[in-house]
Amino acid sequence: MKTVFSGIQPSGLVHLGNLLGAINNWVKLSNDESKNYFCIVDLHSLTAMPDKTSLKTSIRDTLKVLMASGINMKNSVIYVQSDLKEHAYLSWILSNFCQVGELQRMTQFKEKSNSFGTHSGLLTYPILMAADILIHKANEVPVGDDQTQHLELTRNIADRFNNNYGDIFPIPEKTSGKSGARLMSLRHPENKMSKSSDDINGTIYFNDSKDSIIKKFKSSVTDSHNEIKYDLESKPGISNLIEIYSAINATELKETEKQFQDFRYGDFKLAVAETVINYLEPIAEKFEEISDSEVDSAVENNLKLAKVSAELTISEIETALGID
Ligand code: ATP
Ligand code: MG
Question: Ligand 1: which residues within 6 Å by Cβ?
Answer without folding.
Answer: 8-9, 11, 17-18, 21-22, 143-144, 146-147, 181-183, 192-196
